[in-house]
Every structure is written in C-alpha cells, then in structure tokens.
Amino acid sequence: MFQLIKIHKWALLFALFIGIIVAFPQFYFPYDHADTYKGIYIANTDNEVGYLGRIGEVRDGHPLLGSINFKDGKDNPYIQSPLGENIIARLGGILFLNLNGTILLARFLFAFLGFLAVYGFVFLLSKEKLTAISAATAVCLAKSLISRGGLIALLKGGAPTVHFVDFYRPVHPMVSFLFFFGFLLFFWLFLYPERAGRVEGLARKRWVFGVISTLILGSSFYLYPYTWSFIYAFLGALCLIFLFQKKWQDIKRLILMGLGGVVIAIPYFLNIYRSFLHPYFTEVNVRFGLTETHQIILGFLVPSIFVLFLLFFPKEGRNRYIFSLALLTAPFIVLNQQLITGKEFHSGHYHWFFNQPLAIIFLVTMLLYQLKFWQQKLKLFKNINISKITACLIIGASFYTGIVIQAASYKETKPQILEDQRSGPIVEWLNKNANKDEVVLSDIHQSDIVSIYTSLNQFYAFSSPYYFSASNERVLNALFLSYRLDGLKGEDAQALFLQNPYRYIISKTVFGVYYRDTFGSAEAIPDEILNSFVKKYQDFLLIPLDRFLKMDDVKYVVWDTKNYPQWRLDQYGFLSKVYETGDFKIYQIKY
Length: 591
Hints:
By secondary structure, the protein is mainly alpha-helical. Helix content is 63%, strand content 5%. It starts with a helix and ends with a strand.
C-alpha cells in the first residue's frame, strides 16, 4: 500500500480535488444561506429526489425497497435493485450522519474513489500516469462535452449542463460508475498480472484479483442492470476472441468468473421470479416502456470510436489491444440485444454512463500516444514535449468545465432550494409528533420532501408508480384526488382529459413512458382510454372524501396554501388542524 501511494501520489491529489469540486455546492449552501437554511438538501440532477427517497427508506429500516412511498408493499419484490442505496445509507449509519451528511459524504467519497478507479484502469491500459490522470479527469468532470451541444455551450461562455456533474448523482451512476471501472481494473490484474507494474508482489495475487472481480460482477446484479449486462457483453466478446486464439486457459477463467457472478446473483433471479408472479406485474411493467422492436441501434459515437481505435490505437502490446477491442465491441452488443430479445432497453443508459466515458478514455489515450509517436518519429520540437502539454491542457480544460458546471448549476438550483426551505418546519413537526410509517397526504412536491426527511409514508409521491403496490386503479385514484382537491367538476372532465396538460399527465402517470417510447409521444394515448377514465373520475367523486382517505390509512394532511390555495381544506369537518406555520397547515383526520 505504501508503494502504491508513493508511486501514484499525484493521482491521490487529483482525486481529492475532484471530490471537493463535486461536493462543494452541497457543502457551501448551508453557509451561504445560514439565515434561511432549514435542512432541505440542494439536489438538481435528474431523478435525484427519487434516489434520496430510496436512501431514506433504507435508513427507515426497509432495505429491500419493495415500496418506498406506500404503507403496504414493503415486502414486495423490488423492481430497482437496492444495493447502491444500501451502501450509501449504511455508510452514513456507521458514521452516525443524518441524511444530508450521508449524501454529502457519498458525493465526496465516490468522486474520490471513482477517479482512482478510472485512473487505475487507464494507467494499466497506457502505462502512462499523465495519460491516466488526464483521461480520468476528463471522464469525471467534463463528460458532458462529448454530448450534443455540450462543447458548443462551453465555447459560447455557458455551461454544458446546469444539473451538476451528473456522474455523481446519488445513487446512479455514482455507485455503478465505481463498480464498473473497479471491475475493469481488477479484471485486468486478474487476466494480465504480469502488467501490474512496479509494485512488488502484486503480480502474484492473481487469484485475489479474480475473486474481487467475481464479487463485483455478482454484486452488480443487485446494483444496476446496465452494469452487469455491459460487463457480460464484454466478457462474451473477449471469450469469442480467445476462442479464435485457442486460449483455452483464459476461456476457462472467463467462464468460471461468469458462472461465479451468476451464483452470487441467484437471490436476484429469485426476486425476478417473484416479480413475474405479482398480480400487478403487467400494469407496472408497462410504465418502464420496454419497446418491442428488432431495429438496429448504432448511433454516431460508438462506430466512430471503434473506427478510430482500429486506425490509431497502438498495435504493440497484443494483450492490451485484444482487451480494448473486446471492450469497444461490447457497446454494439448491448445496444442491439433487441435483435434477439425483441425488447429494447433504454439505450441512453448505456450511452451516457458507459459508452461516453469509454469514448473519452480511448480518445485521450490515442491522442496522447499519437502525438508522442509522431513527435519522436519526425523529431519535432526536441525541447518541447507536445504530449505532456496536451495532457496538461486536457486536465486544465476538464477542471474548468467541472467548475463552470458546478457554479452554473448552483446558481440555477438555488431559487428552488431556497423556496423548499419553507418545508423545514413541516418536516420538523412531523418528525416530532407523527409515528413511524404513518401516512401523510400532501401535494406531489411536498410528498417527495416528506418521503426523504421523515420515516412516514405518503398517500402518493412522484416515484410511486414504479413499485408493485401501485396498481392502475391506485395510481388513477391518486390522480383523481388531486383533481378533486383542485376543484375539477365531473362534467368538465370530458373535455379536459382529452387535452393537454391533462392528456399528457394521465398518460405519463398511469402508463409511464410506454406511449412515448412506443408511439413517439405520451399524448398518443387513445381517446377511448381517456374517455373510460372520465367515467371513473365521475364515479370517484361520489365517494365521500373522508371514507376514501381512511381506506389508505391517511393520518395527516399537509396543505401548502401558497401553491395550492384551491384545495380549501378548511371546509372539511373531518379534518382537525394541528399545526400551522407560514404558508403551511397540517391537519389530522378524525377517526
């Protein structure tokens, strides 16, 4: 360990800097607004609120995440694997941190470790520390530049994104990113221990690296489906190459590793079997929108990098070349598995979190190698190392990009988070006065906040439709209740349900991304389905409101009088006001 630290001390320093950049906005916000801060975390990456709710659910004692919002369904099969949330939640629990402290620590720690994982892999690939640092820095801080419009936005003086450095969104890709590159690092050391470098004795630890690689592979089933599927595609491509080379011993190692991962994943497959048996499997599964198609998906990035690899990647070092060839073949396989299965995964997850970082790694590696090669061959600028200068420019540009993204995201997010601080007293009162797992009804935004910062369940929240406890009827009733509180009359529903925003909201809530992915837009939902919902809404209005709420064990109702004045909850005799602060009122249902 001392040898590793001594050899790679600069990598550790850069990892520290990147951890600080990633975590700084969330660390700084409470001090920047000490007079108004009420404990609501600054979050703005896509779906981060949903992930924070899942971490909070683990902290509340429900680690399998069968249903994070509803009181019932806690023992249902999980749809989204829960390992990442458990890792982060347990990390905070060990150190006695609250939720905000847990997420802040995770941002720093996974940024630190994620950089080292990428650095270690690229160092084994290139044997150049500066190349490894520049590639890892670009992946961790400047990945958005390889996306459409990212570089143009930066050149115009703007930020490529205003949703923070998205590689460190809790939970994914924050944790899955580390697992993926951690696997590549240890698998390389298992497959080619002789290339372990100058660290004494490391090459003799092949079996240790094999065990670690297998554990990571098997654990990835409980983490993120895109991680294990990409790794298995990579192993399959590598196995096929070894078959042509007649490397029977290496094929045996790969097969044993793959089987070892499957054995570790047996409980995962049992969970899938239980999912198939659940009565709401079909209804909930539709919302994830696995499109039925056999269409080929290539895009621009994957073929481009593959061609550049064939032309410019160094041919010396046959093992390195074969490993890289298999790794760049894997995207073609995962992006086109629907040619066999007929079901297309959301290919964007492969593109954003695997294809893009690999493209950056190989672009940087090939660029710096070619610069060094041609400078030496043509004997140009003998007193200037063009490769090192270029690497330093990449590092500088990456740090600049990361800082610009974080600063712009902080500025963009701050108004909403300051507005959310109004909810601080509500969270505090509920934590002091409500019992664990009691049910709260509030608007969709407050439901997410209550889900994250209390141990209470919700009548409904943004992520509720993606769990088995959310039947179509239950989701519809939750939607109908919001329309009822908004004052929508039954005779008006006929016209409004067929128009936006109602048409879009109903389609998205009940059927998820199905109509968007299958027919091109959420609004493609058929009129006859919407008309049937009109009749159901009219029947729903006939149910006494107090009886309906009691069916779901609702104990408290939180009313944001500023944003939802039309609710007029003071008119209901079965509600007893128990707390009022600012724009909020809390009611308790009289049983």
